[in-house]
Design goal:
- The protein has 303 residues and is an alpha/beta fold.
- It has 12 helices and 8 strands.
- Helix 4 links the parallel strand 3 and strand 4.
- Helix 6 runs parallel beside helix 7.
- The radius of gyration is 18 Å and the shape is globular.
- The protein starts with a helix and ends with a helix.
Length: 303
């Protein structure tokens, strides 16, 4: 793979990395038509990096067939309008099969979800990601890091073996730890994505991030774009104005260990008539009182 290709993909990560929802139909299946309509809305809103099968897309609640379907729909709908970063994970063979499927469809990158296992050693974390990254050397690979125990030198070790590891979605809620981790791994070596979305973007950008993930972008693409424009220009007061605008929405998502992270986004979309509010267990619908608050917030944004 040419360095120019990876450079294009690195640039795509230094942006609003949208995590689209996966809407469900009345019978509980994936609503393909609504999914495509929501993707078009993101693309028309100026979003150019999409992550099918991310956590806001309810990755862990989808069947293998549904994950393939979501990837296929996203690649087809985006065409050449966006860069696609496909979420993969679970056991190594499943993750490798998903990554190869993404490659076959023409996606340029995969994001490797945090390993779901009660016993994760640092060396084992490297082994897990090495097995996936080495299976698709043509693709850019982005580890999704939620493990506060992981050290930056382990990431550097992984990239020594797998030069296609080009970016990092860092989602440990500690800006000081992020700053140290990025420097231990190699600040310039990777594209650093603030993996905890808009609430953490200003502090993580100040420590070296150049992109952030977003679920809120499903509801109001312009709001997310306003924040990254402010951060790119170093205008932190302007970025914090956006932060204040989205604060309550993100507090509702983060409450109770992020229990309603996806639920709040889908509720906002439902209030705008864009998709059904249903989520799958272990997520759950919002109580009535919070539904009204979410609807009021969504209505107040310039959609």
């Amino acid at each position: 793979m040419s360095s120019e290709t990876f450079e294009t993909r690195r640039t795509a990560l230094a942006d609003v990395v949208a995590i689209p929802v996966t809407p469900f139909a009345g019978d509980g299946t994936v609503d393909q038509d609504t999914h495509r309509a929501l993707l078009r809305r993101l693309l028309d809103g100026g979003i150019t990096t999409l992550t099918p099968n991310g956590n806001t897309g309810e990755f862990y609640a989808l069947t293998p067939e549904e994950r393939r379907l979501v990837t296929e729909s996203t690649v087809e709908e985006a065409g050449d309008r966006a860069n696609i970063l496909v979420g993969v994970g679970h056991d190594v063979p499943t993750a490798v099969a998903s990554a190869r499927h993404a490659r076959e469809l023409g996606a340029g990158m995969v994001m490797v979800h945090q390993p779901v296992h009660p016993y994760v050693s640092q060396g084992g974390w490297v082994d897990y990601h090495r097995a996936i990254a080495s299976a698709v050397p043509e693709l850019g690979v982005v580890p999704y890091i939620r493990n506060a125990q992981l050290s930056g030198d382990r990431l550097a070790e992984l990239a020594d073996d797998c030069p296609n590891v080009i970016g990092v979605k860092y989602a440990v809620p500690d800006a000081a730890r992020f700053g140290a981790f990025a420097r231990d791994a190699g600040l310039e070596r990777f594209v650093w994505i603030a993996g905890l979305a808009e609430p953490y973007a200003p502090s993580y950008f100040s420590a070296g991030a150049t992109g952030f993930t977003s679920g809120l972008v499903n509801v109001a693409p312009a709001v997310s774009l306003n924040m990254i424009e402010a951060l790119r220009s170093g205008d932190y007061p302007a970025a914090m104005k956006v932060w204040e605008q989205i604060r309550r929405f993100e507090e509702l998502r983060a409450a109770n260990g992020s229990a309603n992270n996806v639920t709040v986004v889908k509720e906002a979309l439902a209030s705008l008539g864009l998709c059904r509010r249903e989520v799958r267990p272990p997520s759950r619908l919002l109580p009535e009182a919070e539904r009204a608050e979410v609807a009021a917030i969504a209505a107040g944004w310039s959609i």
